[in-house]
Amino acid sequence: MAAAGEDGRIKLGHIHGDCARIWVDNREYGVIWGPAWVITGLTEGIHRITAELVPSTFNSYGPHHHMEGDRHVISPAQYEGVKNFADSEESPVCTKVPQWHFRKFGIGREI
Q1: At 111, is the pLDDT very low, low, confident or very high (cuts 50, 70, 90)?
Q2: Residues 6+ apart with CB under 8 A from 32
Q3: What does the pLDDT look like over 23-37, one tens digit per residue?
Q4: How far are the Cα atoms of 41, 49, 51 from residue 27, in angstroms, in the given order?
Q5: Which of 12, 46, 75, 97 could form a disulfide with 37 if both were Cys (CB 3.0 to 4.6 A apart)?
Q6: Ramachandran region of residue 26, left (φ > 0), alpha (ψ -120 to 50) or beta?
Q7: Contact 78, 63 (CB under 8 A)
Q8: How do the domains of the chain map onto residue ranges?
Q9: Whole-structure pTM value
């Protein structure tokens, strides 16, 4: 349960995913995403919120050893750690690091 204020908004916190499909009081609201994670257009008061998170494909496909972790642009060379068009000009020739990178996924606490 979550309370909407006079502005008719509920801000969801502690969400780790790419987007979330939302239901408000058992009615489909739509899709929201971060960094705001805000539901708008609600009446003031208490509402039942249900969220179905959509994960990043990064945890499944990587590249998990790229120096910058999860990237918005991925190329095959990044899996090998070779600097290419998808890397910034300042990147070193070898972009592979020994550390593993993964994205958090889930809801950190009750909404």
Answers
A1: low
A2: 12, 19, 20, 22, 38, 39
A3: 999 999 999 998 889
A4: 13, 9, 12
A5: 12
A6: left
A7: yes
A8: 2-54, 56-104
A9: 0.69
